[in-house]
Amino acid sequence: MGTLVEEIFSRKVGHAVQAGEIVLVDVDYIMSHDNTTPLAVKAFREIGKPIKDKSKIVIHFDHAYPAPNLLAAEAQKKGMDFMKEQNITQFYHQGVCHQVMIEEGYITPGAIVIGADSHSNTYGALGAFGAGLGSTEIGVAWVTGKCWFKIPETIRINLSGQSQPGVFAKDVMIYIAGLLGMDGSTYRSVEFGGEYIERLPMHERIIFSNMSTEIGAKCGLIAADQTTLDYLANETSARREFTQLRPRNPRYERVVEIDVARLGPQVACHPDVDNACPLEQVASLPIDEVYIGTCTNSRYEDIEIVAGMLKGKTVHPYTRVIITPASAKIFKKAMQNGLIQILMDAGCTVTGTGCGACIGRHGGILAPGERALTTMNRNFIGRMGSPLSEIYLASPATAAATALTGKITDPRPYLEA
Amino acid sequence: MGKAWTFGENLNTDEIIPGRYNITINPLELAKNVFCEIKPEYAPNVKPGDVIVGGQNFGCGSSREHAPIAIKGSQAKCVIAPSFARIFFRNAINIGLPILECPEAVTGIDEGDEVDVDLATGRIRNLTKNSEFQARPLPDFVLKIVQAGGIVNFLKTHEIEDLL
Description:
heterodimer; A: alpha/beta; Aconitase, domain 3; 2 domains; five-stranded parallel sheet; 32% helix; 18% strand; B: Aconitase, domain 4; seven-stranded mixed sheet
């Protein structure tokens, strides 16, 4: 009996647990990437004990891959040496870690997956507990197979209504970030539900779990349903047994009700994710770079929307438009269906897969005084390069409209066209 | 005893150490650029025993451990804040950077105040203003990690099950 997070942990430990209890659990998978693996290896070596179960270890190179400089190359070599030495075979380098974790079937309802990346919350979209941890705890989990958790209280967000055309999950989530604030759910589980969520396809549900991190959440959960099962069967390699869990007589710390029907496109403005406003308030702000990518919004459907809006057109001559598909699977499908051709014809730079420009280390670094509009999940000062640059967050549709005009632009007229 | 360095609310990991500097895991190297954009005077002037006094949700954002490592590498004694972002909280404990939750101290300490912190008891004294505060006690199992000097040291001599 309990909230979804209580149900997940109760099943895992074999008896009912409630918010506030501290538990030590066997985790299903332990994820890390090129940025966070070296420190995990350091912790592992210092502990000096063997790996408990290497089948739980999944490592991705995505943050700056292939290495853009010597120091990154040295860090990745440390990771490679570790994998060779320990015979780690679950290694991926063709996409953003969170997308590849889902595609490769590591994420299933009821699973507990920890990742050395703050956006490991993403896995909650499939009814799994996913939470970000630091590298040292990843090294600890390699050795112990376990992790401690304090079962969090839950904030339930009920989303009702039908969104207007041109308004996407990203817009709704930016609105939620503005409403709750960056510390609005610190230490909490956020459970997203309601008729709006129930109707959403998986690629849109993922936005809420992914960006629950931006409001401080420990995890952002959506109960698995038929949409989840269909997605797992058709879009992923998940073939493991799993249990569908739902909240049962839950006791929520807080319930937030939102009618999405009244929302238009939203933008999270420099320099905080909760600095959210309706697009109209920042419309026409000049934009130097449009970046469409990341674990938030560079799935096939996102690229399809952008290509649909840019087809037969040319992006603004003074605006860099960079598109980084989240994974090779997505990139290939976009190629096969002609989307990459459309984007390149429109003047976009399409890069290899991975995290791309999101962390300011390669693939679209911002100069002082430049302003970007991007489909990323955070806009902290200096994240994409110069501390004197600015980042605005929006949906892929808003990004595409902005790419055409070179200034923040409402996508709705372009979607109707 | 040390000097207080104060910071605002929702201080994120990019503000603690920008992502472009996270190409090393050397604490002293990271410390050279800690807070470089929001308080560039910190890194060249911080002294061992100085204290970071932050606002609520301190350390939000990335999971990068580079953030607490950079602070620890700068020789600051501890971080005091009303609340910490959850990954930063775990990371700080795990690498042995002491953190204290104490909203009253944050209100009662200004930049440059002389502050004395007793990590064992959580007593915080502001010598400049002649005031005293008590931080919230850490849970027992967290104290075990802190007392060992971090989770890695703890596991050298214990099993993970010994935490609970």
